[in-house]
């Protein structure tokens, strides 16, 4: 599992890109879409880390 995660570290960088669904929106809404992506990634990472630490 750790190898898979390390092999795909570029995913965090891609999280900072404006998602295709928001590319036609104004800059403020694009920033909000990126912030939502980042928040979702952090939430999933916390949940994953919590699961690993409980085992």
Please tag this protein with its features.
0% strand; mainly alpha; 55 residues; 3 helices; elongated; single chain
Descriptive report:
The chain is mainly alpha-helical and 55 residues long. The chain has one domain. The chain is built from 3 helices and no strands. It has helices at 2-7, 10-14, 27-54.
Strands, count: 0
Rg over C-alpha atoms, rounded to the nearest angstrom: 14 Å
Coarse structural class? mainly alpha
Principal-axes geometry comes out as elongated
- Major β-sheet profile: none
Spell the H/E element sequence. HHH
Share in helix: over 70%
Can you count the helices?
Answer: 3
Strand portion:
under 5%
Low-confidence stretches: none
Topology:
Blueprint: H1 2-7, H2 10-14, H3 27-54
Q: Nutshell version of this structure?
A:
The protein has helices spanning 2-7, 10-14, 27-54. The chain is mainly α and 55 residues long.
